[in-house]
Design a protein that fits this description.
Length: 365
């Protein structure tokens, strides 16, 4: 049985040259292919008009590795959410978020998520599988194609827990940088924390930003919101973040989804500040990113009043912890944090990839 051909998307310039040579073509065809895949964003080899016609026809069915756009939803603020169909019929979501100077893509790293965070739509859906390299890169090319401009920033804050798919995610980061030309400093990996994986990431010599989803200032509350936290004590997580900052010299940012009456009280702000002061003894800057909860179906939380959010920021600042509030983008298009998958899939008649999945799991924005 012959193995399925490896999609071209994700392959380096030298690998593409080797591929061209293996097909009996000169190496520069591989160089052309690299530009057509990553800059022009071809979906099929048929489109590479600089290739000799006979060869183009011979290789036209060789997979580039692009996914199908099943649905596109644009919010009033210009945020666009895509539902993408993968080769095996699974569906994932990706979001393009435009701003004056930047175009950010929020990418998924898994189909579903096994972390089961209680306030996260993806977490309510269960886990299907890890994404492959081309399936991650495709999301960025899709947004680039749709907006007709270069993607400047990538955040791994879509469906899934990136550190459960770490090898492929790190390969994707390298390819985003090397092949698509996105600066590593413009790439953020967000994790809820997986034991030993932050230490592993610190050794990969990347210049990316690490964002850690904290959501609670003490172990008890954190475990209630994030079942997987039971296997990763908060102290150990903070220690790992501290080591990461020391080793990489990169700042870590902490995400904190504010749930009204649950984790947004003055006592929580005080505890959070104390906890982070421990981490900041490494001398590296850290930062809190507050995310007012975006309501999802199947969860009973409330979004805090804006005055409460402001007060939380003030309380952190009084303790010398810098905090910003994440602007909610694309709420009207259901493209906000924690809303990937849910309503979008339900809106597709007869097409719910997760309909038969028992609600086991969790994770993404
Ligand atoms: N699995 C990764 C990526 C998650 S998505 C992680 O957990 O970090 C990015 C952020 O959005 C996470 O901090 C996540 O907890 C948060 N989030 C998920 N659902 C949310 C919701 N309904 N409202 C606000 N933030 C949410």
């Amino acid at each position: 049985m012959s193995a399925l051909p490896i999609p071209l998307l994700g392959q380096s310039l030298s690998a593409l040259k080797d591929w061209a040579v293996a097909q009996g073509q000169p190496a520069y065809r591989g160089q052309q292919l690299h530009a057509w895949i990553y800059q022009k964003g071809i979906r099929s080899l048929e489109q590479v008009t600089v290739f000799p016609r006979a060869w183009r026809e011979a290789v036209q069915s060789y997979p580039v590795g692009r996914s199908r756009i099943v649905q596109r939803t644009e919010a009033r603020d210009g945020t666009v959410k895509f539902l993408l169909g993968l080769a095996d019929g699974q569906l994932i979501e990706t979001v393009g978020i435009p701003a004056a100077e930047r175009l950010t893509v929020c990418v998924s790293s898994q189909v579903g998520c096994p972390m089961a965070c209680d306030f996260c739509a993806t977490g309510k859906m269960g886990y299907r599988r890890n994404l492959e390299l081309h399936e991650i890169l495709d999301q960025v090319l899709t947004v680039q194609e749709d907006f007709g401009r270069r993607v400047s920033h990538v955040v791994f804050m879509g469906m899934g827990e990136p550190l459960l798919n770490r090898d492929t995610v790190v390969q994707a980061i390298r390819s985003l940088n090397r092949d698509i030309g996105i600066g590593q400093r413009h790439i953020t990996l967000s994790t809820v924390g997986v034991p030993r994986q932050i230490a592993w990431l610190a050794q990969q010599d990347l210049q990316i930003t690490l964002a850690v989803s904290l959501h609670a200032p003490n172990q008890d509350l954190r475990q209630q919101l994030i079942p997987s936290a039971a296997h990763y004590p908060l102290d150990a997580l903070i220690q790992d973040c501290r080591d990461y900052m020391l080793r990489t010299g990169r700042r870590v940012s902490f995400e904190y989804t504010l749930l009204s009456g649950v984790n947004d009280l003055p006592i929580h702000a005080r505890q959070l500040a104390q906890l982070l002061q421990q981490a900041s003894r490494s001398g590296v800057q850290l930062h809190v990113n507050l995310i007012p909860y975006n309501p999802i179906s199947g969860a009973d939380y409330q979004r805090p009043h804006p005055a409460r959010v402001k007060a939380f920021v003030r309380q952190l600042e009084q303790h010398q912890v810098r905090a910003t509030v994440r602007q909610t983008r694309g709420l009207d298009g259901n493209a906000a944090c924690g809303q990937l998958q849910g309503s979008f899939l339900r809106s597709l008649p007869g097409r719910n990839a997760f309909a038969s999945t028992s609600a086991q799991s969790a994770g993404a924005s």
